[in-house]
Structure prediction request, 309 residues.
Amino acid sequence: MPKQLLMDHDGGIDDLLSLLLVLTMPDIQLTGVSVTPADCYLEPALESSYKLLQLMDQESVPLGRGDYNGINAFPSEWRARPEIINALPLLINLPQSPDPYSYTSAPDLIINQLSSATDKVTILLTGPCSNLVLALEKEPELKEKIEEIVWMAGALRVGGNVQTFQHDGSAEWNVFWDPISAQKLVSYELPLLMIPLDVTNHVPVTKKFLSALATQIDYKLSNLTGQLWALTLDTIPSYHYTYFMWDILATSYLAIPEQFTIETVKVKVSTRPPNAGQTYLDETGYVVRIATDVNVSYFYEYLLAQFKR
Ligand code: AGV
Ligand code: CA
Prediction:
C-alpha cells in the first residue's frame, strides 16, 4: 500500500525540486498539493506546480491556493523565481494551467483530502505551516487523520537564516514568515518531525553534485533538475546566500528515513522581536522530533538515482 501524502510548498526552487522528487517515489501517492505565497508569488508558483505535475503525467493531482499572507514577508527577488522556471525549455510549451483563481483554497483542499482519506495521511510542508494550521483550526478532529507531519523548519542548536531589520538572526525563514501559526502547530503535539537548519546545513548545493548530475543529462529529470539547481547559484558566496538542499532533504526523509538521526526534544517558538520565529529548546516546551544528522553521501547518491528518468 503506498503512503498517502499531502504536500504544501511555497514555490522556492527547492520546493519545486521537492515536488518532482515526490513524484519519483514509488511508495508515495500524492493526493494534493497546496501552495503558500511565502518564498514565491502565488500564481506563477501554481503554474510551475501544474507544469511539473503534467511533466510527470500526474496533472490529476488537485492543487490548492493559499491566500493567507504571513506576518514577515520574504524578499521579492526570491519570490519572483518561479517566473524563470516556467520559461525553461522543458516547461515553457506545456499547456497553461487553468485559471489560478479557480483553484480550491489551500485549507479547504487539506480539509477535503484529509476527510476523504481512507488511511492516515502524511503531510509534507516545505514552506510555512499556515495553511495546515488554518485547516486544523477549522476542523480540529482531522488531527486524527494525520500519520506524520514532516516540516522543513526551524534552527535549534545553530543560528537561523533570517537577516533583516528588528531581528537577531536566530530564526529560520519558514517559521519567521508566520511565527504564530508555527507556535500553534508545535503546541498541538502531533507526530511532527522537523527538518531544521541543524541538519540541512550539512547539504549545500555543490558544484561537485551538479557536475555528477550533468553526466546523466540524457535523462529528462537530470536535465531539468540540473537547470533548476544552477539557478540557485546566482548569489553572493556567503553563508547567508548559500543555497542548501533544505526542502529536498526533508522530502527525501519520506523515502530514506533510516539515513537520518532523529532526536525527541521539547521546543518553544518565539512570536516577538527581536527573535520572532526562533525555535528553541526548552524543558517546559512542546514535544517534537527533530532531525540532527543525515548520511550525506547516501542522500546525494539517492537524488542522482531518482532523477535518472
Ligand atoms: O529557510 C529555508 C527555506 C526552505 O523551505 N526557504 C528556502 C527553502 O525553500 C527560505 C530561504 C532561506 N534562504 C533562502 C531562501 C535563499 N537564499 N533563497 C531563497 N529562499
Ligand atoms: Ca520552501
